[in-house]
Specification:
- Helix content is 58%, strand content 15%.
- It is built from three helices and two strands, in the order ββααα.
- A hairpin with an 8-residue loop joins strand 1 and strand 2.
């Protein structure tokens, strides 16, 4: 849900063309630019034994933004 893309080949070789970055994609990029968010997200995932994937980082960024706005 971070981008909208079109696959270029019906064979499924993975080649795709990005059409646009979604609002969630822009939010992810903005949060990832915040060094404290990035480091905190990595630590939370590592301490929970979770993989460092884009999806997991987005979930933690969403939590961190909500926590930040609550203060």
């Amino acid at each position: 849900g971070l981008i909208e893309a079109r696959f270029l080949s019906p064979i499924g070789n993975g080649a795709a063309m990005v059409l646009r970055i979604t609002n969630d994609g822009h939010d992810f990029l903005e949060a990832s630019r915040q060094l404290t968010f990035w480091e905190t997200a990595k630590q939370r995932l590592k301490s929970g034994g979770l993989p460092l994937t884009v999806y997991a980082m987005k979930q933690v960024f969403d939590i961190l933004v909500k926590e930040h706005l609550a203060h």
